[in-house]
Amino acid sequence: MELMVFLTSLLLLLLILVPIYFLFPNKRYNGQLPPGSLGLPLIGQSIGLLKAMKTDKVDKWFQERISNHGPISKASVFGYPTIILHGPIANKFVYTCDGNLLTNTQPPTISRIFGSKGIMELSGNDHKRVRAALVSFLKLEVLKQYVTKVDEEIQHHLQTHWHGKHEVQAQPLMKTLTFNIICSLVFGIERGPRREKLIPLFQDMMEAALSVPINLPFTKYNRGIVARKKLVPMIARLIHEKMNALIKEQAQHNDLITSLLSIRDTDGTPMMSEDEIIDNVIVLMIAGYDTTSVLLTFLVRLLADNKSVYSNIVREHQEIASNKASKEALSWEDLTKMKYTWRVATEIMRIDVPVPLSFRRAKQDIEYGGFIIPKGWQVMLFAAMTHMDGNIFQNPTVFDPTRFDKHATPPPYSYVAFGAGPRMCPGIEFAKMETLAMMHHLVTRFSWELLNKDESFMRVPMPKFDQGLLVRVKPVEETNHGVIS
Prior knowledge:
By secondary structure, the protein is of the alpha+beta class. It has a single domain (about 1-485), classed as CATH 1.10.630.10. About 50% of the residues lie in helices and about 10% in strands. The protein contains 19 helices and 14 strands. The strands form 5 sheets. A 5-stranded mixed β-sheet has the order 1-2-8-5-3. Strands 4-12-9 form a 3-stranded antiparallel β-sheet. The protein has a two-stranded antiparallel ribbon with strand order 6-7. A hairpin with a 3-residue loop joins β13 (about 480) and β14 (about 485). α14 runs parallel beside α19. The longest helix has about 30 residues, at about 275-305. Mean pLDDT is about 85; it is low at about 20-25 and about 480-485. It comes from Tagetes erecta.
């Protein structure tokens, strides 16, 4: 019955929009638009792209477009006419473009779910102001204070979910870990029921982020909107609690919300409004929760398959563990010694980018590459197209962490797993801290093997393994303060 209502509504919408679409074409840019087709109104190429993401063939979808239309083409994606760009020059253009030309506006699904005042949406002075506030919490000097807290969450997680288990689903467990870490440092919420209520809401919002923007009760988009409506008052209550603690001088300034509430302009007024704090907490929560868990899951899969890389990583972490007492927490200095592990993680993100798509919106007509990007149109990048370009990375399908050795850095704007330029992700060092600390404790305490070496994954929009990446786990023999014998 619900499906029939959906199909009927969609048909009626198309009957209204299609005649308008074809009877009144945009003739202003006749001959100046890039090649390609906008497809049907509202739907466009969204369904084809979503299907490619679900079958992990999104790179093929983009390659076919580039083969057919070149590095600049037009399409209609997630409710907006879109210009699709490819190449390092395109990456530089998008990541460094003046906010008066390209705004950081996201597709309507992302904007509605994540909020319009998050850093992903802001441009110009607003972006600089909010970014500065977030960076004040995520800068190295501050993160160094949180290594012990992250280490504590990891050790508790392994003791609870890995020790004594013979088989585990690695991806859900990595999500549990990163969720608990981010809850602790962003929300300042300790383990317990309050945390548990948040998990399904963030999951529904993440799955709705890239979806067909049809707000009917049984759609992913609707579930994401409902989840946001439930989450916002929960965050607002938390903000008020922390504000009261600040007023009473009882706050410890050890979480993001308290940090943002404490920042003042030169005249003493708060730098960020409550709505801005809510939206940016949501953005950072989702980014820290899902993206890092994906990277950790891919690391688990790689180390089970690649014995050479596994041996090198174990050797690196054995050396660190040999200089520490049993169960002693990691320090920031320990993390700086995990250079090979981070090169491996960087190469994983080159091949399987956790967040592959980037969006902008043209604020005015823009001339680019001999074509016009019309005002109001989306601009979309797919990072993997430069990551897997054989002219940039030799033998791009081969896993080779030496690509990121000190003396082998890739050309500018060719590797964009964390963005680039002024739009570089401010949470990169936070993600690095989580990843390195977890891999240290994992490889020094366990060995594992894949139960299904051919287990595939889809992107919804983040990679999601069919069986959660099933692995068989064995504890390692420990002697001499945690060194694997």
